[in-house]
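Hi all, a correction to my earlier message: I attached the wrong file for Lambda family phage portal protein. Here's the right sequence:
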Amino acid sequence: MSATWLDHAIATVAPRMAARRFMARQAFETLTRGYDGAARGRRTEGWRAPGSSADTEIGVAGALLRDRMRDLVRNNPHAAKAVAVLVNNIIGAGIMPRAASGDDTLDRKVDALFERWTAECDADGQLDFYGLQTLICREMVEAGEVLVRRRLRRSLDGLPVPLQVQVLEADFLDATKSGAIGAGRLVQGIEFDPVGKRRAYWLHAEHPGDAYGALQNGLQSRPVPATEIAHVYEKQRTQARGVPWGAPVIRSLRDLDDYEVAELVRKKTEACVTAVVFGDDEAQQGIAPSVVDADGNRVEQFEPGLIAYARGGKDIRFNQPAATGGYGEYKRASLHTISAGFRVPYELLTGDLSQVNYSSIRAGLVEFRRQIDAVQWQLFIPMFCAPVWRWFTEAAWAAGQIPSPIVPVEWSPPKFEAVDPQKDAMANLLSIRSGTMTLAEVIARQGRNPDAVLAEIAATNAKLDALGLVLDSDPRRVTKTGSAQSKDGASDPVTDQAADEQDTDDPAADADNDPAQADQQD
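and the right structure:
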């Protein structure tokens, strides 16, 4: 930006004033040329974007968001399916732990103890550890957050480890507790110490929505140490509490419900009157037909298939409902919006595979699986699995069952079902052979314990040797082409070379390099 003649004129008598004026005008023009999204004008009129904190926004809207999301999951099939898809992919059969202290004897002992404890870990006595994972994940997605409380038990209770966990809905947290408390502060029922560390959770004794419990115990709450609580929710900002995952599309789900109801009512209304019989005298033709029941009382209610008679009716005219299009397109577009809000692929939300082929659905699932992987390792395992494992080892150590209260652990999330199992298996095999992945890693990615799988393989091989059986799948005795191994374990190089050439000429593999062939196979 160059100086104007007025700037030069002012500079002759007041150079400093001219310089300040020039710099101020330059700063103003820089702001006006900045972000279009920050511009003010007719196009952005009515756009409310408050700069409030995440805790302030959740404090105002959190409870209502939970209630509306739960209502949609109860009554809207698309909301229910979205929650189910997320839970099934995040948890599946369960995220399994494996002791990894480096001491094989200790690891086997801890794993066996944990396996027995999983069947008795639920304070309600109904689910095992993996069933609790499903319930907790469902609450995290549907309600936005969930609380898990440690319940220490007596040795006389007969549990494998004197510990159980209790799942509490977010409603148990007293959201009215906010403000300063001593040197710390309270944020919607969560107490923080002066340095910002969670110190306690203020919990109701009963669910506030339980009429009997609220009547008996009131709505009083008391603090529970934060070391006794695992608070599971997704942190999108530095907030203290979570919101339902479907919050961005709550209105879209409701609008779709209203649209479908309106469409159904319109169709029913059009189908109510099948025909109207009119008379010769046009003056006698009223807008509403005169219909009487068996007692001679006038009927003014339409119903499907009704044939109405006007006074002196002789001529019959049939009702022809107007055909309106666009219903399918609108619903498909709405479901695309809803699937994006839940971060679920449209095909998984609706089951509609008419618009995809093998390549596109495979590519679409890659990003979804990456998202699920991030949720498992960055959210669910640190917030729930790790605290429960720590509680378990501490309780087992206190009961004198293991020598240390701290036992390192490795977690194995459930495997993703392969779109093409053969290609995925070959990819794993090449990774192992090239040294970029170990056999234990591949087994763990299948959601199983590598030590248990290898021990099972060894036991199976020993049993086969004892019985003198040779299976075609035993790589110790048979090559991949089905030929017998020599006594020293070496295979026939000519046979192996032919097998490699046969693998190279696999038409399925060549189809991957040729898009036209791949689409034809799809």
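Sorry for the mix-up. Confidence is low (pLDDT under 50) at residues 282-289, 493-499, 504-522.
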